[in-house]
Amino acid sequence: MLLEVASLLESQESVARIPFREMIDLSQDVGVLLNPVEGEITIERAIDGSMLTVKGEISTRIEVACDRCGKPFAMDLKVPVEECLRVESAPLTSLEVEESVEATGKLDLSDLLRQVLILNLPIRKLCGCPALSEGEKPRVDIRWQSLEALKKHATEEEE
Prior knowledge:
Elements: E1 2-4, H1 5-10, E2 15-22, E3 32-33, E4 37-45, E5 51-65, E6 72-88, E7 100-102, E8 106-108, H2 109-119, H3 145-158
Parallel strand pairs: 6-7
Antiparallel strand pairs: 1-8, 2-4, 3-5, 4-5, 5-6
């Protein structure tokens, strides 16, 4: 969802309420959205127009891989959103894009919310599977099988 920054700055109201419901493209490494990301976002303009504050709460359901057993499972996410963006009158360099928006440009709300979702994923994603008992070998995630084979080959050569 692209928003015109100029229209946010020129609006009579200092607060814009935006209902959001959209499927956001996540990297396959992160997970797969099962439901659209939804919530209400408010964008508040500073009195002098130098800042935009994006607030709200978004929720969705995402399928991720368990960090313990590697099996996919679904989890619900409810994430608070609070971002402050500096409004710049000059064109932005690529380094400034993360915390600034151009006064005559567009604000990509979908991308901002995608970043918020990724940053708020739990560090360890566990499906509820039991921990390994003593002596039990962990199941290797198929993405690591090539590395395991290389490691085994290197160990054999050392012997």
